[in-house]
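Dear colleagues,

As part of the handover before I leave the project, I'm documenting each prediction I ran so the next person doesn't have to rerun anything. This entry is a single chain, and its sequence is reproduced below.
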Amino acid sequence: MSTKIIPIGKKIQSILLGSNAIAEPKKKTDTTATSQRSPLYSTHIYKPLLHIIEKGLHSESQDFISGHPLEHLILKPLGVHFVPSELKQVVDSLDFKLGLYDTGTIPASTNPKSSYSEFAWTRDMANKVLAMIEMDCIDEAKKVIYALARFNNEKEQRNVFYGLHLHESGKPNPHDKYQLDTNSHPHIRAAIDANGLMVRSQQPWGHNQLDAIGAWLYVTFYLANKLSNKKDPNYDPKFLKELDTWLTNTVNKYNGIDSIFSLTFKALNRIECWNNFDVGPWEDIYGYKRASSIGICLKAAQEAKKYFDNNNWNAINIHDVNSFKLELTHLTENCSKALEERIPNDGSEVKEIDRFPSDAALTLLLEPFNPGLSEVQEQAILKTLYEHRMGVVGFTRRDEDDYVGMDYPYNIKSKGIFSDLSNPHHKAAEWTLFDPLLATFYYKKFNKKYNESKIIDNDILLLAELHLKRTITQITKEEDSYIKRHEDSNRIKEEKISVPHLVLPEAYWFDSTQNKWRPNENSPLLWSEANFILMMKEALKAAYIMEKAQSQ
């Protein structure tokens, strides 16, 4: 079997560069209606952001802007909106590395100098396959869905899900099934073997990540729902059934008793995922009742119910369909209630977990796994993100975050990974995942409002363009290299790190010796590239809307 990476990023890039289709407006746009409407978000949310846009970008980020090949676009004045040709210039500038093995496995990074190239994260792959689906790269998306299903349905992994499934909901201590012995959980970070297949790794890891399980289930049923739509050009109503049959005939015959998909939903219900502990997307802080995990599991259950309601509850192998219906309903209802406790519908404080309420993982509940939050709940998330997490060039993940933070390459006793939190001037790493997701969130709001009412909402468009500009700034403008020094077997090991130009890094770390922010070694991060793709698709739609509106 070939282990060659298929460069799907280049295909997607060519699609974006050739994109020019949006719905034709049915009547002339009433651009005066903007000033007469009530703002979508209250002023304490968007007014500070508009002020940042007016200044170009945060003053501390000038080092990123000066000399950037897209400097002229980053510094576009307030209210001078992007046109399609400029957005295509942004797309054309990025050196897309997004790729997958012919097995469907996608590494976290294609940089051979990063350990991320040796592993595939379920959560990352779910986000990447969403970008493929949205860009109509269905054959590639199917490969990824098959790879995830095969991995989770193989004997050892499936048996772990089955062990969780055996726990009866409502019995004492459902948490016992999802405690700290993380290697006994369904593996979320898989090793990539010589054939390009996902395999369970013996390396200890924080595998108890409910959000990743929810993300995998969601994208599977999202694609199945898309392919079940007769109007879709890729119409393939048998996709999920054929996948399930393949799992039984090729991977594990016990799938024929109960599909890995129904089995996993039962497991989430029976361990009470809405009332449990996990480490979430950052894999390091064990927390109770994590909002992002609950919300993503809820989104998965909603998508599955939509599929079964519109198709057939016997489309996959389900042991006792009536019982499964009840369990899926129970899961959905309890996740909804628990999520509203964490993100109240009265606009009060949002809590990811009690210890770190303002975790940037909340962004995922705005985009792409929004489980139907109200505008009040969305505002509450935005408020906490802007007040606590938005930084100079990206977003910090949470308080007390030492992963690839300030001066981490020079922190000898940190295994070459962690920064020194005891430093009173410590700065956490600022990540590139979040700005493109927030831009996508706002662009979708703008595009939907225009398509429904033909109103141009400049406030929302400006917010989208702020995050677009910040994302452009995050593209490395030049190659960077530095020496990482860490202790290995009582010896000081030196390693040269090189980060290419025109890629999206995982994060930027602050180098106090040079007084500047620098991209970390896990660059490019393919998850960030996927988020960039989602953003650019919606940004191009908005640009064509503005182009047509201004020509009328």
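The radius of gyration is 23 Å. Residues 21-45 have pLDDT under 50 and may be disordered.

All the best with the project,
I.
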